[in-house]
Amino acid sequence: MGDAPGTFLVVDDDCAVGKTLVVLLAQAGHDAVHVTTGRQAIEALERQPFDVVLTYLQMPIMDGLMLLREVSLKWPGLPVVLLTAHGSVAVAVEAIKAGATDFIVKPFDKAELLFVMSKALLSSVGRNEAAAPHSSLGRNAAELLGGSPSMRQVLSLLRKAASGSATVLVRGETGTGKELVVRALHEASARSSAPLITVHCGALPDALLESELFGYEKGAFTGASTRKLGRFELAHKGTLFFDEIGDISPAVQVKLLRVLQERTFERVGGTQPIRVDVRFVAATHRNLELMVAHGAFREDLFYRLNVLPIWVPPLRDRPGDVRRLATYFCNEFGRTNGRARIAFEESAFGVLEAHPWPGNVRQLQSLVERLVVFANGEAIASSDVQRELGAAPRYALSSPIELAERSVELDLDPGQNIALDLEAGRRTAEREVISRALERTSNNRTQAARLLGVSRRTLYNKLRDHDLD
């Protein structure tokens, strides 16, 4: 189930089944907490972060569907896997259309369980590392996006795009809120009553990504004990969103191009063509034109995706949105951390608005959460903001492709020694920030991950990379 551990919340009123699931997950090297009711699950989620929720569908008082709706509202994007009995598969499929990540049928096979939970954990990584930070903003996407003139222009384009069914490519820097733009597009379209299905392309390796997109037939591979519907089928009559489309491999690009052209596909291990009515939306922070020039992205696929391009401006270009977003985050994190009365002093807004925000809204969101948690009183002062900005992790180039993009912008040779020096400096700064986060949380890795604004899985990988584990 991956190289790094995850944290799972198991919800089942059958204590024997719950304990069995906890043991199986622990044997795979993961942390798991078992609760017996949906209400206990909500309380557990409010106390600590989890990577995946695994819940039984048929429970008294608050069943799996009710819990799914509650989780989707309070923790949008958190993967929820349903455990269901034979005879309820149709209900489980409908639940996936409502936002569940996957389902497992009782009695479950150990290999299938670990396979499905592995996919869900990778989806959680995508949610924390690739998904837009606005995912915790809930609904009302248009209202939250539309403060500044530049974002009102984005909304104007969204309204025009929503009236049709052409493919939309949402572009912008990491952390600008591309996923929220996609959600606003879907909600304003004629497909809003059908599901919006998200595929986190950067979080899944080719083998899992293919089964996620196309589904698979029973016996297609080890662990495939039942037929599973893919994201294309689940998004029928709705919208299919490819988050970080620039991260897919050339092999998957070829298969995706065929579906975009023909609107038909075959399940993994199947031979029967399946036709779907789906609107395709993609998002990326990559320079796709540069990737096409370097042969890393198919030119024909790029033109298929880039029918209606929408660019989301970085936060530094819309400082008027900083106050509104900071206030919103403060209210949300104050509520979830038991500090409902906490608020910013007026002077603090001046510091926030003057900051360049290289990490965009994601950086602002993480900063406000730290300020809410560490503030001594009910007022967040400018000195508090300055202190946390000084302690925040630096946002640096994270891949060779991004380095190549920046090198082109600066008219530099990507092979020059400056790239090596930059990488050495990035690693030194990253190690120092991680060490400081561990010190401030008394080596509590869950809290340290929250402070750094990354998932536990990412933190464990970084600890291993820097010999800190």
Give the DSSP E fraction (strand runs of 2 or more residues).
Answer: 5-15%
**Main sheet overview:** 5 strands, parallel
Biggest β-sheet: strands ordered side by side in the sheet: 2-1-3-4-5
Radius of gyration: 22 Å
Poorly predicted tracts of residues: 126-140, 395-421
Number of helices: 21
Shape by Cα distribution: globular
Average pLDDT, all residues: 80
* Annotation, overall tally of beta strands: 16
Helix content: 40-55%
Question: How does this structure look, described?
Answer:
By secondary structure, the chain is of the alpha/beta class. It is built from 21 helices and 16 strands. The longest helix is centred in the last third of the chain and has 24 residues. The protein is globular and about 65 Å long. 42% of the residues are buried. About 9% of the residues have low confidence.
Summary keywords:
globular; single chain; alpha/beta; 21 helices; 469 residues; five-stranded parallel β-sheet
Sum this structure up briefly.
The protein is 50% helix and 13% strand. It has 21 helices and 16 strands.
Write the layout of secondary structure elements.
Layout lengths: L6 E5 L3 H13 L3 E5 L2 H10 L4 E5 L7 H11 L5 E6 L3 H9 L4 E5 L3 H20 L11 H5 L3 H14 L5 E4 L6 H11 L7 E5 L5 H9 E2 L11 E2 L1 H4 L4 E5 L6 H13 L1 E2 L8 E2 L3 E6 L3 H6 L5 H7 L2 E4 L8 H17 L6 E2 L1 H9 L5 H15 L4 E2 L1 H10 L8 H10 L7 H24 L4 H8 L3 H10 L4
Parallel strand pairs: 1-2, 1-3, 3-4, 4-5, 6-13, 6-14, 7-10, 10-13, 15-16
Antiparallel strand pairs: 8-9, 11-12
